[in-house]
Amino acid sequence: MFNLGMGEILVLGVIALIVVGPEKLPSLARNIGRFINDIKRTTSDVTREISRSIDEQEFNKKNSKITQEHIQDNTHMHENHLVDEYNPEDVAHEDYTEEDFYRDNPSAKVQEKEHEQQLDLLEQEETKES
Q1: Element (H, E) at 13
Q2: SS3 of 93, please?
Q3: H helix count then E strand count, the chain
């Protein structure tokens, strides 16, 4: 940690023995050891928390990007699906309305609601990012 050699440690020990005295030297060494361990533990905890925070931010960023891409893909798919299903030009009767289409295709209404919910989620995420 401090790059001290054996000779330097011996000199520090002799100086400490002269300054503190033989009675207090063991308790001083114990207190210094505890202090160094506390510093190591604290720096380790701080490093771990910073790493965890960075990993969490990266995960959230990737997850958000994947979610947005998934929602956009599903939205595009649903739009194409609904357009393919309901084409007024393909309807044989001129009086066939949108309500008739939804009556005949109840799943289309559910898909449209899901599509609207996904668009709302995208708008909410965009407002949160802004």
Answers
A1: helix 6-20
A2: coil
A3: 4, 0
Q: What ranges do the domains of the chain cover?
A: 24-129
Q: Report how far apart the first and last C-alpha atoms of the chain are (Å, whole number).
A: 46
**CB proximity list for 82: less than 8 A, separation 6 or greater:** 108, 111, 112, 115
Cα–Cα distance measured from residue 100 to residue 7, given in angstroms and rounded to the nearest whole number? 96
Please say whether the beta carbons of 66 and 72 come within 8 A: no
φ, ψ of residue 39 to 5 degrees: the values are -65, -45
pLDDT tens, position by position, 55-97? 888 877 777 777 776 776 666 655 555 545 555 555 555 566 7
